[in-house]
Amino acid sequence: MLKMFHRRAVAGGAAGFWREVWDEAALSDALRFCESDPLHPLMARHTRPGQTMLEGGCGRGQYVAYHASRGVRVVGIDFEKDALTDAKACRPDLWLCAGDVSTLPLGDSSVDVYYSGGVVEHFEEGPGTALREARRVLRDKAVLLVSVPYHSPLRRLLKWGGRPDWRVVTAPKEGPSPPDMTFFQYAFTPGEFGTFLKDAGFEVVSTRGYAVLWGLMEIPGSGVLARLSRGLRERRSHRKNDRGPYVKGSAAASRPASFWKRLLVSEDADIPGLGWLVRLMRWSSANMMMYVCVRREAKLAESPD
After folding, report:
1. Which CATH number does the domain housing residue 100 bear?
2. Confidence of residue 47 (pLDDT cuts 50, 70, 90)
């Protein structure tokens, strides 16, 4: 697995770090992105009205608001209390709770779907504790949707070319941090993260790489991609949108997406003539990998990370 560091004084698993990151983007932009999110079709397929869904590490609450608008009973949990306070100020009706995904304040077998988007990789001791806790709160035949950074062919190539802030390790907490750096996150191959999931009591049903532009932005000199990504966000933020910072009520039908939005934002593999390219870029360069998992009913053995 790839152990990644950064030069911020606060580690990637600390609440203060995420408050700083979330303050850099508008809440309304984050919510509008839900409809063009590359994972939108997958999320819609596995979350149905009337189900109880937990988002562990909900941050600003945009996914809680969005899926609640679809009739899903969503509970959002995060350890950054200020972010939850901001979300409740915009939408007092949202079910939000302060808590830690390693010790969830929920009963056994209490939710139908658990969504964890870019959370468990930030525990330097490894994702095992959080994954076992996810299994505890899921009902029989429930679904875990968990995404983590992908140790892609592109990242392996970049590491070979020299990245002092990245180290290949065989186990969590292996090796000291580089000078003047703190731990940020792990990136996993599907085989590596699949082992953590199996040890926690899950079976992987499918995987999906996504966030290709973010993956390509790790290439040295890729400033043009950063400007393109920023331009797409600014274009969305300037469109007229009468829903305010959070969707309320039924989710509105989206207008047909443009070709470039389907290609660069939604990463739509059904684009005529270019689906093969989308699939190739997901495999080679995606920043994140989503795992669709179900519970294995065999008795779990106690196993540390």
Report:
1. 3.40.50.150
2. very high
